[in-house]
Every structure is written in C-alpha cells, then in structure tokens.
Design brief:
Structural class: alpha+beta
Largest sheet: 7 strands, mixed
Radius of gyration: 25 Å
Number of helices: 11
Number of domains: 2
Length: 365
Amino acid sequence: MTYFDKIKELTKNVPIELVDFSQPRDVVRIPTQASLNFITNKEQGDWAENLIIRAINETSKKFIAIKYGKSDDLVAGEVGFDSFFKEFQEELDTIGKRPDLLIFKKTDFEEKFGYDISHIPHNKIDNYVKKAIAGIEVRSSAFLIDRYEEVMQIRTKQFSEIALTIKDKILAEYQDILNCPARSNYIDLLNSITERTLNVTDFKVPGWRSNERLIRLNDLFRQLKTAIKEIQKRDYLSITPKVEDIKVVHKWIESFNVPHFYFQVFFDKVYGISFEQILQIISNPDNEGLIFSVESDTKNQNKTTIKINSKSGTEIAYKIDEPSHASVRKEMDRGRLLFYVTFKGGTAYLDIDNLTKILEIRGDF
C-alpha cells in the first residue's frame, strides 16, 4: 500500500461535517487589500520557514531542506498580485497545495534547481518533487508555549477555586430564597457543580431584581458564570490546519505520494504532527473538545480552522533562540503606508531522535 493509499483510506473516516472530500473546494475570492496584521503574520511565517530550513541544513549530514511553497513578496492591493493569486488558485486545482518545505536525501538534491523552487512551474519539477522524503507545512505562533501552559494552569486553578467558593456561599447564605418552588432548580444546579463538572456546566443568570438580597444573589450567579466561562476556554496552544487546506493537502499527496507534516513554530519550541495523525485525530468525535476543537479563526479571515493540541504532536525543537526584529515601512498604491514587524535570525535546536522518528528516517540524520 502506498502512502497515498493509506491517506485515502483515512479520509473515509473523517466526518463529512468537518471535511467532505466528495465536494470540490470552495472558491476563494481575491483579497482586495492587505492588512497590517496580515503582513506581520506573513513575515513571521517566512521567518519560521527559514528557521526550520537552517536548523535542518546546519544539522543534517544526509538530508537537505529547500523552500517549495508557492509564495510571493506581493500583497493584496499591489500591482501583479491578482495574477499571482489566480495562478495560485489554478495550481491548487491541478496539483494541490505545495507544502512550504521539502526534505530530500542529499543524494537526490539537484543543484540546478537550488534551495528555492517556489517560483518554478510545477510541470518542470514534478518528477523531482516525487523524490522528496517529506513535505513540511510550517505554521507560526506568537507565543512561548511553556509560559502559556504555566499561566493557563494557574488561571484554571484560580477560577476553579473562585467558582466553588461562590457555589458554597450561595448554598450557605441563600438557601431560603432558593427553596422557593420557582427557584428550586438552582439548588439542583449548584449541587451538580464539582471540580470535575466545571468544564461542562452552563446556565442562564436569573436576572432577579425585586429586592436587595435577590440582587446580591443574582450578582453571585453572574460571578459564578464568569468564572466557569474562564475555565471552559481552550487551555492549549494548537497546531492549526485550516479546514479548506485539508482537501488541497490531500490533492498534493495524491499528486506526489510524499509524506506530509505540519510543524508549529513557537518562539521557544517547535512541535510537529503528520497529516496521517491529523486525519486519525479528527476522525474520532470523542477527541473533539479534548484533543482538538473546530473554530472560526478571527486572525485568519474567519476561516474554519482545526486546532489540535500541540502536545498531541512531537517536540521537534526543544529550544529556540529568539530572532531580532525591526519595523519596516511599506508604501502601497495611492500613497498608503503600512508599518509592520520583520524578523531575522534565531536558532532552533532540533531533537534529532524525535525528528527522525516522526519522519520515519532510519539510520543517521
């Protein structure tokens, strides 16, 4: 069974409510204007790609990483962007979405193409691409994952203590009010709240205002709900494949039969996960809310994104030296100015054992 055959079998288990592989991908409209956040995020993404390329090429004796993903320095609103965007969409329908990076054995690397084949038409490099051992889609995140998890654990503990304290206060001081038949359901609600059920508890704040004690009780219920909402927020940083990309990644794998992976670059570590594992995770509804969530990503034009707990993947780099950064001025058409952040340098320290394991490389790296 080929790699693509395995992926094709896995797609049959993915709920069509998440990804319907029988339907063509949605048509994407041409963006008309780039935002400041978009350009800064693009700069961060370019930095993350270069970080991984340098880490592999400076570490490995037998493998080499090159830039492959379709990209351009043009942004929406600049002359030439519309043509670039249309060509990109046509390529998605022809071969699928190129991963950002390709990894080759050094014995298969072709000097004539160099370290960046992102601008070479696909029909000139198709046979070369099929020799790659892996395609890497690089995602970047403006977080320190270790610091984030430390803060979230403290926050969850604090709000859990607040919620349970409020619950006990209500039952101890306002039992007489709640014993009224019209309010007795709230006693059942409060008795059902435990440290274990806080993450699934929900209720409507009553809205009582007819006397001073009812107003104070109503305020306590409001505070309780606020604390519970904080507890129920997603408490992990994620590897983030967009739903619309799942189909075009599948198309690329069909075209080239090369194993595909996502690498999530934080400013302190890098985590990786195989496309195969992504399909396995989202195929099990019991994983939703525990290992992954499906959200409309406001930072990415509200596109539906699957957010998989990074710790479900493999730690690829155990440490990162942060890059330097600087402000850049960009003049758009009609004299519009954008000032954004650009990144340079930094070092990722690879966990070679983990990297070779996830890429299924046998022998020396």
